[in-house]
Structure formats: structure tokens, C-alpha cells
Design brief:
single chain; mainly alpha; two-stranded parallel ribbon; globular
Length: 103
């Protein structure tokens, strides 16, 4: 079992040394999260991106990924979003209809 007592979570996502609040169950720094989001295996990238969409405030998501990237990966992400899936489906489909996500 992972004992994360004493880990200082942060809403300061601009510091590479901060541990983001949305990684409460898997503490890692912003820098490590960004690195893993870009360089891990496809399945790990999908898992981390789904966690971001599930746990982070929607406005904070865009500090790590673009709306177009989320849209491109949506088929793989959707089954892992949980209770936030409806929100993201609404937002992304609206943006897509408005031509804001590119092709």
C-alpha cells in the first residue's frame, strides 16, 4: 500500500517541482508528469491523460495538453473518464462543431 501522508500537493502548476493536486493518489512533480505524459508507452500516456481529465479542473488540463490532442485521443480516453465523461463529451463535441479542434 502507498503511504502518501506528508506529501504537499499544490495548485501551483507553473512550478516544475510542485506536486499537482490531481495526482493525490500517485504523487509526482509537474516535470515528471509532463515527461511521462510525452514519453511513456501509449497505454501509460492514455492512463495519465485520462487521470488528468478525471481529476483536474478543466481549466488546468490545458496546461498539459491541447484540446486537439484530447480530441484525437478521445476514443481511447472516453472509457476511462468516469463521471466526467459527459462533461468532456459535451465540451469537445461543441468545440468540434465550431471548428475549434482542427481536422
Amino acid at each position: 500500500m502507498n503511504d502518501n501522508r506528508g506529501v504537499m500537493l499544490s495548485t501551483d502548476l507553473s512550478s516544475p517541482h510542485s506536486i499537482p493536486y490531481f495526482l493525490w493518489d500517485e504523487p509526482m512533480t509537474v516535470a515528471e508528469f509532463c515527461h511521462r505524459l510525452r514519453s511513456a508507452s501509449t497505454s501509460e500516456q492514455t492512463r495519465l491523460l485520462a487521470k488528468l481529465l478525471r481529476e483536474a479542473r478543466d481549466t488546468d488540463v490545458w496546461q498539459f495538453v491541447s484540446p486537439a490532442e484530447v480530441w484525437q485521443q478521445w476514443p481511447a480516453l472516453a472509457p476511462h473518464i468516469g463521471r466526467r465523461r459527459g462533461f468532456w463529451e459535451f465540451l469537445l463535441s461543441h468545440w468540434q462543431r465550431e471548428g475549434l479542434l482542427g481536422e
